[in-house]
Amino acid sequence: MKLLVYGAGVCGSLFAARMHEAGHDVSLLARGERLTALRRNGVQLAEEDGPAVKRVPVPVVEHPDSGYDLITVFIRTHQVDAVLESLAGVQGDVLFLLNWAAGPEALSAVIGHERLLLGFPTTGGTMDGDVVRYRKSNVITRRVAVPIGEPDGRTTPRLERIVEMFRTAGFNAKAEPQMDAWLRTHAAFEVPLGQAVHAAGGPVVLADDPDAVRGMLHLMRQNLAAMETPPVPRAFAALRALPQGLLVAVFRRFLKSPTAVHSGLDAPSPAAAAELRRLAEQLRAPAGGR
Ligand SMILES: NC(=O)C1=CN([C@@H]2O[C@H](COP(=O)(O)OP(=O)(O)OC[C@H]3O[C@@H](n4cnc5c(N)ncnc54)[C@H](OP(=O)(O)O)[C@@H]3O)[C@@H](O)[C@H]2O)C=CC1
Ligand SMILES: CC(C)(CO)C(=O)C(=O)O
């Protein structure tokens, strides 16, 4: 399978490196200074705060080639509009792995319904200069598979092939029949979480402010209540059902955990803030406008 990874930030770089190491025919699309650094050093990976940096010589491109079987897109929500037209002109199925609450139609209208798949990268990390500091797998992240789905929820041969390909590179992937509801549930949770973390100045600072955690939980509950479908995964229903005091305690613990600290939450950037704003707009848009 000839694979293009579009977007050479944290998630795209890590995914491309793992695919290359697993022997797949993969190239990584980058731009600007990131392109220069990748051409010079390959993808540089370090586990959390560890001192060891591994270089993986993934082939890098500035422009898409032709004849891809699959293009995996790891960019931020607000960056999607700018790449859709160029993706429309490149051959291959297109799998978006990102925060997205605007529904599949907004994407398929430009690139074609039959080419589209959606997913979410549950692997996490931060950029440290040119080095990707990825989160070690832990008891929480091992339970959360990378969900990948067809827009209409079917389990197709191509979906099964893609899930299997992710697994060969060590990603715990699974076919998700309700991918749009999964992404909207995640956005309902992620927007208040990300905005509260950014306002506080980091996950650990937020953990020490129970009032702010309560405010964040209140917004998550509002978002979940406004959804047209039950939450996916169903476990998110607990955010509405369990007592506030218990959930505040759980969130304060989570915010100090390696899962939160070694994720994009701990690296506020203009791109992260812009992404949250766009995701909030997508959540607020009425169903018919999506
Ligand atoms: N990091 C994490 O821990 C997690 C992230 N996610 C989600 O996954 C998605 C990807 O996140 P992440 O990898 O962290 O994001 P990053 O900001 O690290 O990476 C995005 C990359 O895409 C590049 N890019 C954007 N537009 C273009 C373009 N038109 N042409 C070429 N390159 C482009 C950016 O380049 P440039 O810098 O030049 O703009 C950047 O290198 C997001 O939705 C995020 O919320 C989900 C779970 C965890
Ligand atoms: C930690 C969290 C909830 C926010 O980025 C996440 O989605 C992840 O890193 O997988």
Automatic annotation (TrEMBL):
Protein's name according to its UniProt entry: 2-dehydropantoate 2-reductase
Keywords: Oxidoreductase
Enzyme Commission designation: 1.1.1.169
UniProt KW DNA damage keyword: no
Oxidoreductase as UniProt keyword: yes
Gene Ontology molecular function: any one: 2-dehydropantoate 2-reductase activity
Gene3D superfamilies according to UniProt: NAD(P)-binding Rossmann-like Domain
Boundaries of every Ketopantoate reductase N-terminal domain copy: 4-131
